[in-house]
């Protein structure tokens, strides 16, 4: 009993430790900043929600992050889903090496990946911009989507697809009507993970961004001059949207199971 109580207390301490920075961000989004510093509480206000897009550079950086995250997520989900299907369902020469490369990409430090991509783009004389950022984000998110989809694929009953083909369904029809709905939870989880990895990435992006500024890069660059309260508001909104999507996904999964 005592061990269970200590474990419960330890768990809540860890949860509080993880949630504390988020709580500070949310609170200081309502801080009535009167000076350069936004690190001391100076009163309550809703002004920064009303002036959310008042700083052009910050607004452009957020827009770039969202566009890049959406574009990289779409590409990553398509390619990662096909890779996950291949690894989970089929046998082919080089499958072991492919599995090794997928997990190696997950374990590779972002510093190494960023430096290697920078070397590649410089050697190939590719101008660094939003396109190179999208390519970089696809490369480091692809393995996460593939692994998530693969984990879902290996649990599927192949007899369902065989039954669909026996009933006259084409290969594409079987995939669209049987396989894709069955693996959709894994695809959706991979998509959310890819989007989250993309929109908050700093290390890899800082190597390949060129003149393109993203939300994390803008925040780090503004540290010396003072981070404006709008950053906390935007972070709060992004966090809130993520929570809503996660809750909606959990409720949808529970409804399907019931």
TrEMBL record:
> What compartments host this protein?
Cell membrane
ABC transmembrane type-1 domain residues are: 62-249
- Source domain of life is Bacteria
Q: Does the keyword Transmembrane apply?
A: yes
Q: Which UniProt keywords apply?
A: Cell membrane, Membrane, Transmembrane, Transmembrane helix, Transport
Transmembrane portions of the chain: 9-30, 66-88, 100-124, 130-149, 178-199, 231-251
Q: Name one Pfam family in it.
A: BPD_transp_1
Q: Which InterPro entries match?
A: Bact_Polyamine_Transport (IPR051789), MetI-like (IPR000515), MetI-like_sf (IPR035906)
How does the record classify its membrane topology?
A: Multi-pass membrane protein
Q: Which SUPFAM superfamilies match?
A: MetI-like
Please state which protein family the record places this protein in: Belongs to the binding-protein-dependent transport system permease family. CysTW subfamily.
What's the protein name?
A: ABC transporter permease
